[in-house]
UniProtKB/TrEMBL annotation:
Name the UniProt record assigns to this protein: Phenylpropionate dioxygenase, large terminal subunit
Translocase among keywords: no
Organism in which the protein naturally occurs: Paraburkholderia lycopersici
The keyword Oxidoreductase is assigned to this record: yes
A GO MF label: dioxygenase activity
Matching CDD domains: Rieske_RO_Alpha_PhDO_like (cd03479)
Length: 424
């Protein structure tokens, strides 16, 4: 059983919490480049439970500052982004992207206060289709973000979106590594066979992978790795072969879904913690070899549609029961909810923002989830005991991808699929 104390440790991400401090040792993707324009509107940001303000200055430099002015605490969202700095509207203090105060127009000239005052600021970079922040001890800053394949391919080879999910990050990760729900939650039903029991009506959610419906009780193999873990879900294919969906969990909150065909696109997520109760679901689709086609950019509605008001809230949410259509649920799909992404969000949000894990009854299909929790607690413990988070300083460990392959019986899945899962 997962204790209430461990649940608190896993889920709390604010300053001074064990997990929040571990996350502060890593670069974290939190914005899309489109959200910040040079001299454009400053953007309210909440990340790891801290209220911040982000802006792009006249020269394109990025800044991430405390949300509140160090003078008398005005919200810098109301500030002016002008001539290489963000100016507080109350008394005009102006801050550059590094947190230096460059002007105090209401103070005497040459005031020592100008040299002595700073605003809290964090390093922030644009890289790999996202904007990343580092919120930890400056002396421990990793040289680069993790070298995940989606972030290292050319822009034309990748498609990245984000949407708001009103749950703790860990609930999202647990959905991302939970292969056993794929053939159930996301299954389509044959509308011609309403009289038959559920199992006999299932149609695979992925037309190129019939095995998802023909074998809905896969056997799971969980292998810890230096980047997190590799999970093999084994289903029967032919008399002498298995179909393996091999997914990756990358510390501390990245997941990768198996591709649906050889040479096809790979998909993944970052479950970026906004605070204890909300996360950004970044969804990435990429192909290492070639630009994406229009069809490939959204593969099975995993990238959910969002409002275009800058909130990145999905078009449907709990207030509309995620658009659940009972007639569609009766005839065509498990949930009656449109799109794989929103089906996941609906069940994950329905547990409440922080699920009470002490009340669960985990089964054999939940082995990856148990391991994920232990790994997360262990990075927090590592930081407390050694002052280090080893994985943060090894961006090369992230050069892996997921795979979907048919392998003969008797072949170890990690060895048999190595040529697909290793990124050169
Ligand atoms: S409160 Fe910001 S300059 Fe006075
Ligand atoms: Fe799912």
């Amino acid at each position: 059983m997962f204790s209430k104390e461990d649940n608190e440790k896993l889920c709390r991400v604010g300053p001074g919490t064990p997990m929040g401090e571990a996350f502060r040792r890593l670069w974290i993707p939190f914005l899309l480049p489109e959200e910040l324009k040079a001299d454009g509107s400053p953007l309210r940001v909440r990340l790891l439970g801290e209220d911040l303000i982000a802006f792009r200055d006249t020269e394109g430099k990025l800044g991430l500052l405390d949300r509140y002015c160090p003078h008398r605490r005005v919200d810098l969202f109301y500030g002016r982004n002008e001539h290489c700095g963000l100016r507080c509207p109350y008394h005009g203090w102006k801050f550059d992207t590094t947190g230096r105060v460059t002007e105090m127009p209401a103070e005497p000239e040459n005031s020592q206060m100008l040299q002595d005052t700073r605003i809290k600021s964090y390093p922030i970079i644009e890289w790999g289709g996202a904007i990343w922040a580092y919120m930890g001890d400056p002396a421990c800053k990793p040289e680069t973000p993790p070298l995940m394949e989606w972030a290292t391919v050319p822009d034309s080879h990748r498609y990245v979106t984000k949407r708001l999910q009103r749950t703790n990050y860990a609930q999202g990760v647990e959905g991302g590594i939970d292969s056993s729900h794929v053939g159930i939650l996301h299954s389509r039903l044959d509308p011609e066979k309403v009289e038959l029991p559920f199992k006999q009506r299932q149609v695979s959610p992925i037309s190129t992978v019939p095995y998802l419906a023909s074998d809905t009780a896969p056997k799971f193999f969980v292998r810890p790795t230096r980047h997190g873990m590799t999970i093999g879900a084994r289903r029967n294919a032919t008399d002498d072969s298995y179909y393996w969906r091999i997914t990756q969990f990358l510390l501390p909150f990245y997941t990768m879904i198996a591709p649906n065909k050889e040479g096809g696109v790979v998909m993944g997520h970052s479950w970026t913690p906004i605070d204890d109760y909300n996360c950004w679901v970044f969804t990435m689709t990429w192909n290492s070899e070639r630009p994406l086609s229009e069809d490939e950019r959204d593969n099975g509605a995993v990238h959910a549609d969002t409002k275009n008001d800058g909130s990145y809230e999905p078009l449907v949410d709990a207030s509309s029961d995620y658009g659940l259509d009972r007639e569609v649920q009766r005839l065509h799909s498990m949930t009656g909810i449109h799109g794989i992404g929103m089906q996941d969000t609906a069940v994950q949000e329905s547990m409440g923002p922080i699920v009470d894990r002490s009340l669960e009854n985990l089964g054999s299909g939940d082995a990856a989830i148990t391991r994920f929790r232990r790994q997360l607690l262990s990075i927090a413990n590592e930081l407390a005991e050694t002052g280090q988070v080893t994985v943060a300083n090894n961006p090369d460990w992230y050069k892996v991808r997921s795979a979907g392959v048919v392998l003969p019986h008797g072949v170890d899945f990690q060895e048999g699929a190595a040529k697909y899962t290793e990124v050169k």
